[in-house]
Amino acid sequence: MSVPNRKVLHVDMDAFYASVEQRDDPALRGVPVVVAWRGARSVVCAASYEARKFGVRSAMPAVRAERLCPHAVFVPPDFVRYKAVSRQVREIFSRHTDLIEPLSLDEAYLDVTATKTGLPSATATAEAIRAAIREETQLTASAGVAPNKFLAKIASDWRKPDGLFVIRPQQIEAFLAPLPVGRLPGVGKVMEAKLAELGVQVVADLRALGEQALERRFGRWGRRLHELSLGIDERAVEPERPTLQISAEDTFETDLRLDEIEPHIRRLASKTWAGYQREPGRLARTVVLKLKTADFRVLTRSLTQPMPPGSERELADIACALRARVEHAPDTLYRLVGVGLSGFVDEDGYRAQTDLFASEEASLPPDRLPPLEKGD
């Protein structure tokens, strides 16, 4: 059902941003804390467990959070501090294993099949990591222990906050059977509704439907659903996850027309370029412009060129030019804009490839030269 004897942890810091704020300001302890900028366009970055009792959740509009919990204390996020604590936690992980796959600042997978410490079990390793986090950061973390990543992630949420849960190989099928299918990765509201039409509510129903029926209905995704219903997940913990995209986006205080957003595009291009500079040895060939209309429709426009943008200004110029590919009426209002870089390639390989093409093209007559790549 999984790679034999693999032992995987998923470690998840509890209400991370809010917990850092409560740790650093004793006046915030025991009160509902919402990490967010105030304002009609702001969203919640994190909520303390005291705030969650009132229904406040991450990614919720801040104005709704304020209605749900009027006495909450709103704290603007401080990502410099959060990243510093995240580095502390990562260092604790690295004492036990080099096979660490970060998912965000506050969670990661660890393969502890073989560890540096020689602790007798994955459970003992998880307990040691949680104890060190508590002692060295004064924060709590929850952990899940399982034979694979998908099960470890479910397990880490099982006894939050400050909990530890273990799913052993012989327990997998019985553990999964009563779970709502929405607990499976990739099963969102739309897929839940489609499965409900087939009479599938829990994982046991999904398993009973069978692989062939699921594959006929959903193709390869149906086969994957069947594997998940049996607890199968062969994905390895990948310490070096290559960057797929770097982006920055912002929601305006008031909705703007397309011809009014150039200063915002250039400001966000500066942020994106700064992130790109922290990716040595990697080149991004695709520039992406993201827009969200006042009625919450999201659209993207992109351009892939033979040569990656060579400067912040060039990135901003391309992103601004991509507005010409937006077909909406000129008076359409937009509430959000984002600028991104994607299509990452290894620099050495890319340079070698372009040098090869350049030498080949030099030997061709002009009418045989390949056309420049165009993209959207």
TrEMBL record:
It comes from the Bacteria. Its main location: cytoplasm. The keyword Metal-binding applies. It catalyses: DNA(n) + a 2'-deoxyribonucleoside 5'-triphosphate = DNA(n+1) + diphosphate. Binds 2 magnesium ions per subunit. Its cofactor is Mg(2+). The record marks 17 as: Substrate discrimination. Residues 8-188 form the UmuC domain. GO terms for biological process: DNA repair; DNA-templated DNA replication; error-prone translesion synthesis; SOS response. Its EC number is 2.7.7.7. It is an enzyme of class 2 (transferase). Mg(2+) binds at residues 12, 106. One of its GO terms (cellular component) is cytosol. Monomer. Poorly processive, error-prone DNA polymerase involved in untargeted mutagenesis. Copies undamaged DNA at stalled replication forks, which arise in vivo from mismatched or misaligned primer ends. These misaligned primers can be extended by PolIV. Exhibits no 3'-5' exonuclease (proofreading) activity. May be involved in translesional synthesis, in conjunction with the beta clamp from PolIII. This is DNA polymerase IV.
